[in-house]
Amino acid sequence: MEKELPRHDMGERKRLKIHILTVSSSRSLETDESGKLIEDFMHTEHQVSRSLCPDEQTRILREIFCNIEKDAIIVTGGTGPSVKDVTITAISKIAEKEIRGFGELFRQYSGKDIAYFSNASLFIVGRTQIYCLPGSADSVKRGLEVIDKFIYHVYHELHKE
Question: Which CATH number fits domain 17-159: 3.40.50.880, 3.40.980.10, 3.40.50.2000, 3.50.50.60?
C-alpha cells in the first residue's frame, strides 16, 4: 500500500533557484538519467541549473560552494555504503544542521529494504537546503516526492525573521 505524504506548505509558492548536482565518476550529463529526472521534475516550477562531478570530496564541495546562493541544491549519488560514496562525508563538513527526519522519511516512504542502506539526508548551510539522494532513478523519483512536500516549508523556516 502506497503511503500518502501530507504537504507542508507555508506562505506562497514561489519560484525557487535550484541546482542539481550529480556525483558520479561513471556518468556524463548526457547519460545521467537521475539528474535529468530531477531537472524535468523541477524545471516547470523553478529556475534550475545542473552540473556533474566525480566522487571526490573536494570536487563535491567546490560544486556546493559555487551554488550556495541557490535556495536548494539537490545532490544525487554518493550516499551509499561504498568506499567511493563520499557525498555525505563531504557535505557534513560544512553543514550547519542536518535534518535527519528527511532521510528517515525517505527510507520509510521508499518501501524498499535497499533504501535503508542509503544515507539520504537534508543539510542546511546558511539559508540553502541541500538534499542528498541516492543515484538510482527509482530512488530519485521517491526522493522528489518527499522533497516536493516539504521544500516550501523548509524555505519558509529558513527565511522568516
Answer: 3.40.980.10
